[in-house]
Amino acid sequence: MAITIDAISGSGAKSNVSSFTWNHTCAANTILVVTASGYDAAGGTSVSGVTYNGVALTKQLDSLTNSNQITTSIWKLNTPATGTHAIVVTFSASGYDWTSGGAVSFFGGLGTTGNTGTYFLSGTPSITVTTTTGSLVVDSIFNAQQPITCGQTQIQQANINSDSSASSYKIATTNSTVMSWTGAGQCAQTAVEFLATRTGGSLLWLM
């Protein structure tokens, strides 16, 4: 069964928070994959947990870079509760400066991950992930200096103003999938491949 998108939701921009929440509606037999990214000038703060309907998601990949000021992370939960429930993102310290989160549901997910990528530099961000055709690639990014826009073949989920907390997804069409963004600066980016299967599934994501 090919991966298809079910529903999308987002938190909107958040600032000076220790946690934030919004609602998302999942169909039956779903998978929740969460991405979160942001900036904390004090440094050392990361995403410590994500829940959906009070159930903890499992972290798949994260990064803490730029003197520990920038964090990106991706989380997942198989078979979440159906219906509309709260997503809660919690940080390891209070007063997180800028962040955002979002969610997307999809059908056709296997519930396991494939390859990953992590990137940090001062320049134009891009990750190339080795993929299986038909899988879903999700990335999480934060640019500390200017707004960014995802590549034309990706679906962008969130982008807050002068400093950019964002994420995107793309269904792989080849064995090499590029997740790229315009807008150079001090930035961190992570990406995870989620494999397709012949059974139904649904994905959730945070940015």
List keywords for this structure.
207 residues, 18 strands, 66% strand, disordered C terminus
Summarize the structure.
The chain is mainly beta. Helix content is 0%, strand content 66%. The strands form four sheets. Strands 1, 2, 4, 7, 8 and 10 form a six-stranded antiparallel β-sheet that branches.
Walk me through what this model shows.
There is one protein chain. The protein has 207 residues and is mainly beta. The chain has one domain. 0% of the residues lie in helices and 66% in strands. It contains no helices and 18 strands. It has strands at residues 4-10, 14-17, 19-26, 31-39, 47-52, 55-56, 58-65, 70-78, 83-91, 96-107, 109-123, 126-130, 136-143, 149-150, 155-159, 164-171, 176-182, 185-196.
Q: Report the helical percentage.
A: under 10%
Q: What would the principal axes of the Cα set say about the shape?
A: globular
State the major sheet. 6 strands, antiparallel
Order of helices and strands: EEEEEEEEEEEEEEEEEE
Strand content: over 45%
Termini Cα gap: 27 Å
Helix-and-strand structural type:
mainly beta
Helices, strands, pairings?
Elements: E1 4-10, E2 14-17, E3 19-26, E4 31-39, E5 47-52, E6 55-56, E7 58-65, E8 70-78, E9 83-91, E10 96-107, E11 109-123, E12 126-130, E13 136-143, E14 149-150, E15 155-159, E16 164-171, E17 176-182, E18 185-196
Antiparallel strand pairs: 1-10, 2-10, 3-9, 4-8, 4-10, 5-6, 5-9, 7-8, 11-18, 12-17, 13-16, 13-18, 14-17, 15-16
